[in-house]
Amino acid sequence: MTTTTGLPARQGPGFAETVALIAALMGLTALAIDTMLPALPAIGDSFGLAEANELQLVVFAYMVGFGIAQVVYGPLSDVWGRRPLVIAGLVILIVGAVVSAMATGFAGLLIARVLQGIGAAAARVIAVSIVRDRYAGREMARVMSFTMMVFMIVPVLAPTFGGLLLALAGWRSIFATMAALSVAVGLWFFIRMPETLHPEFRRALSVRSILDAARICVTNREAVGYSLAIGLLFAMLMGFIGSAEQILGSDGYRLGALFPAAFAAVAITGGIAAFVNSRLVRGWGMRRLSHGSHVIHTGLAAVFLAAAYLWNGLPPLWLFILMMVAMQFFFSIAISNYNALALDPLGEVAGTASSLIGAFTTLVGTVGGAVIGQAFDGTIVPLTTGYFGLSVLTLGIVFWTERGRLFQPHYQPAVAASAE
Q1: pTM for the complete prediction?
Q2: CA distance 347 to 365
Q3: Sign of the alpha-carbon torsion through 102, 106, 111, 117
Q4: 15-401: what fold?
């Protein structure tokens, strides 16, 4: 029996359990962000913060550690294998969560959040490498789509879960629960997932080998172009997540306790889109789906920006939710396929490729998202401006990446069944 990469299959979890386990590893990242959103005002009160926009740093500090650490984990996983790096990262994540729960000052909390991000980076980047080890082409896109579908459940439920913990035991209990869940996922991974790095792809531990792998990544037009596209699209999402509590909960629409429900309405759309993508990607192809979705997203972003100005910065809540849901749907289809397109030609250096792409896209998204979030002025104008500008810019980058040939697969399925 062989995998879609043409290499011998390894004993381990089946398709459904693989999807669930990879989604759980990746879900720890979203859990560490989204459970905190309802607690941000309480954290501000606890540490006596006067400026509400400072609270966004609880999200962005985590993302900085998450982005930088990915550069380390990927190359090391190509040398030592996937399992030891995932386990080490989860230990760091658990320590960061415990320190966060015990923080006595805001600066200490931010440092602990960076530590959490450093640990979570292992689960995120190596989870993608494990998928690439076992699958390729459209089959890899299908696995990632199912994974993203399960993964997207976390942002839907996390704010409500965080709000419940906040009400029952205070904001520190949220971090304690993160630590407990990380222990559970770590044990599951340790027991069920074997080493997936193929012996012929194992690389020597040397600066030259890492630089050679990096050279393969940065000289591949598709990898570079789609990585930049992912980063800029991710900046939109981070801009929304960073300011979501202020827009919906406390300053803009002032929903208060109803904030998790409004946030969930937007987040659940990503899961629906991932499911739709998993059903269509084999027949339609990654490029046709992602490029078409991106064009639609750009048009919606233009309408959203116009609505923001038409209603003096705060259109009706129903319109805001409707526009965010529509854009999130097409955003999720585009970015899911862009991830697969960026990584697909880099199977021989999957660990390094995943880490470099992950680090680059995370840092671009974090910086861009922070710019959007810190511009929050009580209206959605900064958010809608960021969405439209970045969507147009990213579409231009995709156009360059494909040399002007949008919507067209590079290979016919009859010729190369595993290729796009």
Answers
A1: 0.79
A2: 24
A3: positive
A4: Growth Hormone; Chain: A; (1.20.1250)
